[in-house]
Specification:
- With 156 residues, the chain is mainly beta.
- The chain folds into two domains: 41 residues, no CATH class; 101 residues, Jelly Rolls (Sandwich), CATH 2.60.120.
- Helix content is 0%, strand content 45%.
- The chain is built from no helices and ten strands.
Length: 156
């Protein structure tokens, strides 16, 4: 009898049940020597070693907000939930900006970006779901000649 450890090439076979498994499924172990064929879900992934599943980031740079009531629009390319908006000045920033995060015509989160050194970011927590038919915008009150990098974090 040939030991499984010495099998090669054409002598190898698919996992048990592969002949009747649905397309785009994988074998998931149950930890007791068996398992099932299924689609991968977040519960099947070790999230202590795999980070930021279902996360997406968009980044923008604003050069300044010299108009005391500026607004920028952020495109929504798929249904997703905005989790936070992070503002990082690209040089030392003095003064403050009030920022409103809007969904359609309503403010869903707001915060004040205060004096800070270059590269020191400040975050506004949002946690609001957007669909492709929603309007997502950031409103600014106040003025600054400092450019900011804006990082928008989503779950999708």
């Amino acid at each position: 009898m040939v030991a499984h450890a010495t099998l090669t090439g054409a002598e190898l076979h698919e996992c048990k049940g592969a002949d009747s498994a649905s397309a785009n499924t994988v074998r998931v172990s149950d930890g007791s020597g068996s398992g099932t064929w299924q689609k991968i879900s977040i519960d099947n992934i070790n999230t202590s070693s795999v980070k930021n599943l279902n996360k997406q980031w968009d980044s923008f740079v604003i050069k300044n907000t010299t108009d005391p009531s500026s607004r920028i629009y952020i495109p929504i390319d798929q249904n997703k939930t905005c989790t936070e908006v992070r503002f990082t000045p690209n040089s030392t920033h003095s003064g403050s900006l009030t920022v409103g995060v809007r969904k359609n015509a309503s403010t869903v989160a707001s915060g004040t970006i205060v004096s800070t050194s270059e590269g020191v970011g400040q975050t506004i927590t949002v946690n609001t779901a957007y669909t492709t038919s929603d309007t997502f915008s950031l409103d600014f009150s106040g003025t600054t000649t400092v450019s900011f990098t804006i990082l928008v974090s989503y779950t999708v």
